[in-house]
Amino acid sequence: MLDLAIIGGGPAGLTAGLYATRGGLKDVSMFEKGMPGGQITSSSEIENYPGVASVMSGMDLMESWPEQAMRFGMKHSMEEVSRVSKRADGVFEIFLLGDKKIEAKSVIVCTGSTPRSSGIKGEDEFFGKGVSTCATCDGFFYKNKEVAVLGGGDTALEEALYLANICSKVYLIHRRDEFRASPVTVDKIRNNDKIELILNSVVDEIYGDVSGVNGVKISDKTGNKRDLKVPGIFVFVGMNVNNEVLMQENGKPLCDLSENGNVVVDLKMKTSVPGLFAAGDLRIDASKQVVCAAGDGATAGIQALEYVNN
To answer: What CATH number labels 131-235?
Structure first.
C-alpha cells in the first residue's frame, strides 16, 4: 500500500512529491501518463517565476523539476488514473486503466485543467489541421505566414507575442474592447507592429478544405463582416477543470465541488474527505500561476505527511 498517491505531474504534483518524500514518506507514487511538467510546458514565455531572472519557455522551466522531485524517493508511474474512491476502512483505491487497482493511505489530486473549446463552427473539424491551442507546439508551421489568435486573457496575449516572432502578421480577435491580461502584456501587444487588434468581434466560422484551414469569418458588434484568409487560428478561451477522476460510479463526486467543478479546499488544501487533498488549477480560487501551483503542492505534501504519520 502506498503512503501517498499523487495524481497529476504538473508543478503542483511534482512539488507535493518533493515535500512529502523529503519529509519522510517512503512509498509515494506520482501517476502521470505522459512526461511530467503539466500544462505550463506548452507556454512559450515565462518571465515571472521568482528567482528565475531570464525569460524562458515553460518546457525549459520545468526541465529539472522531475529529477529534483524524485531525488528523495518519489516514483513516477506512467499510468492513467480513471477514478479515485475511498473505502469504509479509510483506504483509498486508485483505479487505473486496464482494470488495475492500487491502494493508498492518502491522495493528492492535481490534475489541472485543459483548454476549453470555443464551440465555433469548424473548430472540431479542423483541430490539428489549422486549429491549435498551443503556439509553442505549432507556431513553427506558420513561419512567415499570417495567423489569427482568439482570446483576451494572459495566455492569448502571450502566445500572440510569441507568434509575432515567427509569423508575418498576427490578428488578435477579442469579443471585448479591453483585455483581461496583465497591463505589461497588454502594452507589449499594443506596441507590436506585427499584431493587429480586432476588438468587439467574434469568430463566426473557421473554414477550409481537405488540406486544412483556409480562413476565418468574423463579425463585430455592429454587424460588419470580415473574412481573414489565414491558414491557422490559435484558440485561447479559457480552461476546463479535469475533475473526472473524482467522479464515482453513482455519478457523484468523491468530495465537495464548486458550481464550476473545482474542488473545495481549505487553506491546507484539505478537501471534505479526510486524507484527500487537491492542489493547483483543480482547486477553487486557483490563481493559475506556476508559483501558486507549486505552493499548493508544497502545502498538500506537508499535510499528507502529517495525515499519514498521525
So the answer is: 3.50.50.60
Yes or no: say if 309 and 46 are a contact pair by the CB < 8 Å rule: no
> In the chain, what are the domain boundaries?
2-115+239-309, 131-235
Tell me the pLDDT tens digit for each residue of 118-151.
Answer: 999 999 999 989 999 988 778 999 999 999 999 9
Tens digits of residue pLDDT in 196-255: 999 999 999 999 999 999 999 999 999 999 999 999 999 999 889 999 999 999 999 999
Question: Position of cell 467574434?
Answer: 202
**Active-site residue list:** 134, 137-138
Q: Domain 2-115+239-309 carries which CATH code? A: 3.50.50.60
CB 108 within 8 A of CB 263: no
- 294 beta partners: none
Q: Is 35 left (phi over 0), alpha (psi -120 to 50) or beta?
A: beta
> From the centroid of its chain, how far is CA 45?
15
